Every structure is written in C-alpha cells, then in structure tokens.
Amino acid sequence: MKNRILKFSAALAVMLLVSCKNDAQNTGSESVKAEYVGKEIGSEYDAEIDKLVSQMTLEEKIGMLHGNSMFTSGGVKRLGIPELKMADGPLGVREEISRDNWAPAGLTNDFATYYPAGGGLAATWNTEMAYTFGNSVGQEMRARDKDMLLSPAINIVRTPLGGRTYEYMTEDPFLNKKIAVPLIVGLQDNDVMACVKHYAANNQETNRDFVDVQIDERTLREIYLPAFEAAVKEAKAYSIMGAYNKFRGEYLCENDYMLNKILRDEWGFKGVVVSDWAAVHSTVKSLQNGLDIEMGTPKPFNEFFLADKLIAAAKNKEISEAELDKHVKRILRVLFQVKAMGGKERVKGSIATEAHYQDAYKIAAESIVLLKNENNALPLKVDGIKSIAVIGNNATKKNALGGFGAGVKTKREVTPLEGLKNRLPASVKINYAEGYLERYDEKNKGNLGNITSNGPVTIDKLDPAALQAAIEAAKNSDVAIIFAGSNRDYETEASDRRDLKLPFGQEELIQKVLAVNPKTIVVMVAGAPFEIEDISKKTTALVWTWFNGSEGGNALADVLLGKVNPSGKLPWTMPKTLNDSPAHATNSFPGDKAVNYAEGILVGYRWFDTKNIAPLYPFGYGLSYTTFGLEKAKADKESYTTDETISVSVEVKNTGKTDGKEVVQLYASKSDSKVTRAAKELKGFKKVLVKSGGSENVTIKVPVKELAYYDAASKKWVVEPGKYTLKVGNSSRDIKQDIAITIK
Ligand code: BGC
C-alpha cells in the first residue's frame, strides 16, 4: 500500500506524494518532515449545487436532513443525488446493519480488517501509524462503497472509568491532535469523510443522554477542544458528530455556542454536523443552532425531529427555506468533495487484504507497552524453554465484536494464544488453562447498553476447578504467562466501569500462579487503567496490550519473543488507585443532572505532576529491550518572539544490544505564571529508530504559540512573556534534561 505524506508549504497546502513501503517508515529523519494537512472543501461545484437545490421540493430537501435508514441519510434519485452512506467506526468498517433495525444485514461481503482501538493507536506515539490507520480504513470504506466513517473518536480520557476509554485516544490534548490529524487526512485521502466524534465534552457514559457538562472556558479551550480544532483547521475534517450530552445547559446537537460560534464562525468549519444516534431533541432549534443531519435509532424515520415535524415547521414559516437550503448545500458540497457526485473517478478501495492486515499488525506492534522487565525476563529465551503455561480467558477472548457499540466483523482475529502458537517453535509445549471465567451477574449483565451509572457486575469468585488447572499448568511449565485485564463486553460504550479492580477473580488467580511459578509474566489486555500496583510489584515482567486488531496476537507474541522490540508508551496515566485521579480526587464524577469538571485544566498527568501524586506508571511511560540515553538537548536560541518556532535538538543514543525505537517527549513548564499552570504540558514528541550502539539526532519544533494559555476574559490565546523551562524526557516523570528559554 502506498502512503502519502502531506506537507504544508508556505501559504498553500502542497501535496507531496511520497510513496514508501510501510517498513521503511519512521526511520527517524523521515518522520521529522511529516506534517499532515487535509484538503479544503472546494467551491467548484457551487453553481451546480445552487441549480440542484433550486429544482428540489421542500420534501426532497428535508429528506436529506435526516436518516432514511440506520446508516444513510436521504438522497434525491430523480436529480442524481445519492444517499449519504455512513459506517461505524473506530475499530474499522462495521458490518452491514439492516436498514431499519440494529440486526446484522447478514451479508457475506462485509468482512473487514479489525484495527487496533484508539488507545492502542495513540500508544504508538507515531503520527505515521495514524496516517496508515486512516488510509487503510479509508480503502476499506471505499470497497464497501461508503461515504462517511463515524470515526475517529477523540474525546479526552477524563476518568479511567470511562466506558469508551479504549475507543478514545488519550488524556492529553496535544497527543490527541497529533494522532487525530494524520488519521483524518489518511482517511479522507480515499474520497471518504471522517466524522469526528463526539463533539464535545462527552467524557463519560454515565447519564450521557442528558448530563449537563460544566467546564470553564479556559479548560474547554486548552483540554477538550484542541483535537477537534486541529481536526477542522488542519485535517479539514468533512464532518463532525454532535454528542449526546448537554454543554452549559444546551444539548450538543442544538448548541449554538459550540456549533455555530466556535465550530463554524471561529474555526471556519465547512462540512456537515451529524447528530449522534438519537441525540436530537428539537426541530427548528437544532437546525438553526448548527445541526445538519439527524441520525437515530429505530422508529419510523419520518418521525425524526428533522423529518415530518420539519416539513410542518417550514410550512408554518417557523423556519425559512433559505435556512433549509444552507444545510442541504453543505451536504451536497461534501458529497461532491468525496466524489459521490460529480462524475469524477473515485477511489475503489480494497478490504480485508493481506496488506491491510499488515497495517493492523504494524500499528499493534508499536502499541504494546512494556511496563516492567526485571532481570530481563523478557524477551523469552525460547532455547531454554520446553513448556509455557498460557493462563487466562483473555488468551483466547476475541474483541472485534462485543459489548455495546461499534465493532468489526472480521475473518481474522489472532488471539494471544494463537499468536504464541504461530510464533513458537513446535518444540515448546503450550499448557493452556482458562484460569478465570468471564462471568457476570446475569441480572446486571442485562443492564449492558442501558445508560445506567455502572457497568456490568462481574462474578469475582474463581471457579475452583479452573483455578486448580491453572496452578497445575503453571507448576508444570518452565514459564507462565497470564493474560488478564478486560474485554469489550466489560469495557463498553453506554456504561462506565464501577471501579478499577481486576474483574473475574483475576487478582487472586495472578497471586496464586505467581506463588507457584515465579517465572510468571503478566500481560494485560485492556483499553483502560486498572489498579494493579500489587501485581506490578510481585511480577518480574508486566506487558500492556490493547484491543489490538486482527493481528494483535501475532504482534504480542513477537514482542514477548523479541522479534519486535516494544516501543509503545502509555497515552494516559495509570493511577495507583482511582481516587488519585483528578475527576475522583475532586469528587466531580459522574455528577447527577450536571457534572462540573472541578479539576479544570489539571486533567491526567497535569494533575498528578502538579499535585505531586505518584502514579503507578506515568503518562508517556514504556520500556524497551534496549536502553536509551537522551543527551545534549538544546534549543536553537535562548530567546524567542511569539511568532517564532523553537527548535529543540537532542541526541538519542541506543546504549543497549538491540535496535529499538524511543519516543522523545518535550514538556513545557512555566513557574512564575500569572495564571494556574500545570507543572508540565506536552508540546512535542518524536519517535525515532536507533540502531544498537548508534545515535540519532532528533529535532522537535515547537511554535511559540503552543506555549499560550487561553485567556477567558479577552477570549484570546496569550503567550506570556518571560522564562519557560522545556523538559526533555521519555515520560512525564522521566525528565532527562531541562532547557531554559525566554519569550520576549
Ligand atoms: C455512538 C456513536 C456511534 C453511533 C452509531 C452511538 O451510540 O455514540 O459513536 O457512531 O452510535 O452506531
């Protein structure tokens, strides 16, 4: 597959087509150049669009403003306007659903590649992986003849309990935008629209249908909006999904401030705003306040707010025809933009190809985080091993489908056990034991999918026979690997988790297995943090993997066996206990009718680092099988004006015996600020491959305007003059060098 890197040059976006094999990517200097900028929605079809609209009846116009099936909005056949065809979602192109209900359509040509979940993609800290992801999914969308992918999901991880943490990227606004932008550009390079969701402040599942989110203006701008803003201004996303919840008293699909004032007037968004499914609550108001298309869940489609009710409102002159035309034209413009109209040749795409599985593999391989590795327990030295106990339901659990929400129907999902079988020599015997059983209290499992305050209740008592079998397997094997964590039935849209405890009795299982075989490696398969301090102390090796796509098991086996040197870094903080994290420490989750984000700008590591609370594993953290030195970090100058760009160079030395990739992270800090500042804020990063014994020079560019804070009084971004410290390290807590600079 060819990858295209878009580079911004001077005033206009110039497309620079670099075709390179994926394996050649990210070899340091190459990634330094990459900036991703999307294509603006053009105006070349405006006259044709005006003409089309002038020929349309009121009913035809309104037919385009709402769902006419589960995943399409209406077209106008007689004028050659097709339906707008949408598909979920963040894990790859969802299977075809019936037109008027959630039941699978039962097709045989809708198998797709299952890609790593958002948290995994963000854990690569690799912008080229994000482009690859988008580009690969974009190809699959076209092969399924779709126009709009309901992805990426980029809400900030505010609480580790969030049911969609696995789908979202990170707790950090900078990493968020740096991953979101290339993904969107890659996707839209394939003549499909990204529908960036869920705009905005949709950071919990609890009460999501009505909760009124209160965020102060500065926090909104600095934490919750930057990735959406970059999606619009840099990636030129063609659509945005309005969220379920309210923001400052108004539902987000009828929120004048968020949709008209910020999205369109301030950011210049030209695309379409699509509602989340059944997130609309009014007719004239939602349209006037910025919504373009209402989508929803089963009920006769003409009963939607933007269907018969809108026809009646238009006939009663409660809304002008000019207002309707505005929305219809936006939709036509994006249809032309992705060549669903206009007769230009459109990307044909391909689906579930070996090349796409390999894209999923590469992302997965870079996403896996090595959290602990005492005495070089990993990689496993197969030569000395005759048998391995593979323990845990998660060794065989599949996650492409599951829970509530968008999954992928796929022909390939390599589980961890299959991955090991694929990669281990036949001489190594695998002793598999399920260990813990995935069991729910049936009464509460029934709640799955209801917007209740809590997720499913698990049965945490171990089954004695299953426990015994696991202990036997561990005793009788040279090494044991326990696959613990969660799965997509447990971590799911529509409910937040109850706590951060390991479910299904895993804690006890792990302790007991560790007691009989000290050579036990713990692998967590999960999308969100768990309280694993005790386990992390006792085990020699701890690995974190995600709902990691079609090739997840192969990628994991390659990491465990050393074919791949791990290079993933946590995209969020792993707290020791839930109450250490900001939304819980401030007792401001989940709220009731309203939720007030009391921690303000101190989300994620900003809280931990400012309040000096030690996390279990910090944001940005992840080990490698080799060791790195970050040396000679320096800025190109001592002082800068506000429109300059700071260029920080650092030498990355690989001081170990294996080639490996390191993520250089640059945080900014301002001690004598007149406003509250986080102790550190991520302002740049770069992933670089360094050969064993070698070194690479890395340059990180930080436009001075990235150092600004949002001043709510003047409604402006303000770069405070004075001294700043740039901190170079490889996690928010492992800072190797400080650089002092001055802003004039
Ligand atoms: C989710 C969206 C999704 C939509 C359609 C909603 O429940 O919040 O993320 O795209 O359903 O499946």
Model description:
- The structure is a single chain.
- The protein is of the alpha/beta class.
- The chain has 3 domains: 336 residues, Alpha-Beta Barrel (TIM Barrel), CATH 3.20.20; 213 residues, 3-Layer(aba) Sandwich (Rossmann fold); 116 residues, Immunoglobulins (Immunoglobulin-like, Sandwich).
- The chain has 21 helices and 29 strands.
- The strands form 7 sheets. Strands 3-4-5-6-7-9-12 form a 7-stranded mixed beta sheet.
- Helix 6 runs parallel beside helix 8.
- The longest helix is centred in the N-terminal third of the chain and has 17 residues.
- The radius of gyration is 25 Å and the shape is globular.
- The N terminus is likely disordered.
- It binds beta-D-glucopyranose (BGC).
- The site of beta-D-glucopyranose has 7 residues, from loops.
| Mean pLDDT metric | 94
Multimerization status: single chain
Strand order of the largest sheet: 3-4-5-6-7-9-12
Number of helices: 21
Just name the CATH architecture of the largest domain: Alpha-Beta Barrel
- Integer tally of domains: 3
Separation of termini? 47 Å
Strand content: 15-25%
Number of strands: 29
**Name of the CATH class of the largest domain:** Alpha Beta
In brief:
This protein has 744 residues and is an alpha/beta fold. The strands form seven sheets. A seven-stranded mixed β-sheet has the order 3-4-5-6-7-9-12. Strands 13-18-17-16-14-15 form a six-stranded mixed β-sheet, sandwiched between helices. Mean pLDDT is 94; it is low at 1-33.
